[in-house]
Give the backbone structure.
Amino acid sequence: MSLARLPQPRAILFDWDNTLADNWGTIRVALNAALTAMGFPPWTLEETRLRVRASLRDSFPRMFGERWPEARDIFYAAYRANHLDTLQALPEAGNVIRALAGADLYLGVVSNKTGPLLRAEATKLGWDRLFGRLVGAGDAKHDKPAADPVYLATEKLTITNYNTVWFIGDAAIDVECARHAGCIAVLIGPASGEEAQIEQLSPERQLPRLADVLDLVRATGLTI
């Protein structure tokens, strides 16, 4: 991990689940509905947090084989039933994104949550107007960790050097996505269970708290 001064960001992209928002309880309920319907044992909340990384269209064919469309429909029916009621903003998230938006930084989201569900959740939290674009699974040709959703999230900026784009997330897949797109990778938290991957991917920074992003941005010379 380099401790060199980071380049001043032109845009900052965020992961969604466990970076800005928490809806893991409902994700687990919906996933377990699909797992049990397909004859698999349910997952604990901890297992869900550790294992859910790839988008549904990438992960379900591996998990359920030819029956994956059936499992998909079960999952989405269970998730849509109450995801807006159980959605919670993480404690520092609102202050951080409002401060960055107030500094006239372009903000976006790149998530492996299906695009319409992601945007519904951002609207529910009152954050949709703070982001230039919210890109979820299925919006781009390929999902995270491919670079496609990063390019889609920033296409209106006509960026040629992605070293001026920061990607902030909580998991190895976020750092991997940043690497594929050429972004600066900022990891929040310990990424428990992924330590070896994180060491290999070597994010530019690993911060204990989301709020620490503000100091990191200030260190580049921007006023927040």
